[in-house]
# Entry
Amino acid sequence: MKLPPLKIGSFVAPVPLVQGGMSIEVSTSALAIPVADCGGIGTIGGSPVPMEE
# Structure
């Protein structure tokens, strides 16, 4: 089954894939960039919890 591209405003992701937000040390550019390189939407999360915790 072929899925249509994902359109958000003027942006088009050829692969309708969105990385879910995961925060604390997981949802960083190290994951978001490869997701975007594959044609999806990468996300970078943030959290008020200090990295030490």
User: Anything to note?
Assistant: Residues 25 and 51 are 8 Å apart (CA to CA). The chain has a mean pLDDT of 80. The beta strands are 6-8, 11-13.
